[in-house]
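Example S7 (structure tokens).
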């Protein structure tokens, strides 16, 4: 599969919605993830990422303007031992709880489906990174409506063992802007990953549509030690 430019994918799409990137740094030493949110409505745009334990939480930038918190306030990132969970909704908690009970990533998501936001039926996208004894693997999932049908959920899981240095996978909720918004199609896109955390963060943030972007989270995890660096960028600050 052709390795795409993450920056070009973002620059050429005014509204990919929410997106997850997971991969490995060029030097092979870091597990890399990025999660961004975008918004078209004032409610969606009225948000920031805030650190919460080892993960993050979405919060209302101006609580007095918060309308419906149900699909926009959640913990996108949580950490359980050597596992880092990244999702676009409260299924982060579903996965976290499932793993604690001995379920797999895929099994944990069996109780969930796409978001109940007709007519878009926004897909639930999720990722999990696992670092054990210096070995790194990750998986990504998308739960989406079957061609806009509200009573039919299609489930896809993609697993990547010992991912190559300088490469990652990118999955996002919408193919592009529209009404209704068309769900992401196909397997996650292969994208190049380059630069140290600050350079990577800046490139991703600057590539997102200036009007629609809301917040960005980036984490580089040292595969040998488990230590990590995090960057959070909020349009509202």
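Recovered sequence:
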């Amino acid at each position: 599969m052709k390795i795409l430019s993450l920056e070009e994918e973002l620059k050429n799409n005014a509204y990919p919605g929410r997106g997850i990137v997971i991969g490995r740094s060029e030097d092979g030493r870091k597990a890399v993830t990025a999660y961004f949110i975008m918004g078209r409505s004032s409610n969606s745009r009225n948000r920031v990422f805030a650190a919460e334990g080892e993960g993050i939480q979405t919060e209302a930038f101006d609580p007095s303007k918060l309308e419906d918190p149900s699909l926009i306030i959640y913990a996108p990132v949580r950490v359980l031992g050597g596992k880092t969970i990244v999702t676009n909704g409260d299924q982060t908690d579903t996965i976290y709880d499932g793993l604690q009970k001995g379920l797999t990533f895929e099994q944990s998501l069996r109780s969930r489906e796409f978001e109940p936001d007709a007519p878009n039926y926004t897909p639930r996208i999720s990722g999990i990174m696992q670092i054990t004894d210096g070995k790194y693997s990750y998986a990504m999932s998308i739960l989406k409506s079957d061609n806009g049908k509200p009573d039919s959920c299609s489930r896809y899981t993609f697993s990547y063992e010992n991912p190559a240095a300088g490469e990652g996978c990118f999955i996002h909720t919408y193919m592009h802007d529209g009404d209704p918004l068309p769900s992401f199609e196909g397997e996650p896109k292969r994208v190049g990953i380059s630069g140290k955390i600050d350079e990577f963060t800046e490139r991703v943030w600057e590539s997102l549509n200036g009007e629609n972007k809301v917040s960005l989270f980036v984490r580089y995890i040292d595969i040998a030690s488990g230590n990590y660096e995090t960057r959070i960028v909020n349009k509202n600050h």
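Notes on this example. Residues 14 and 209 are 5 Å apart (CA to CA).
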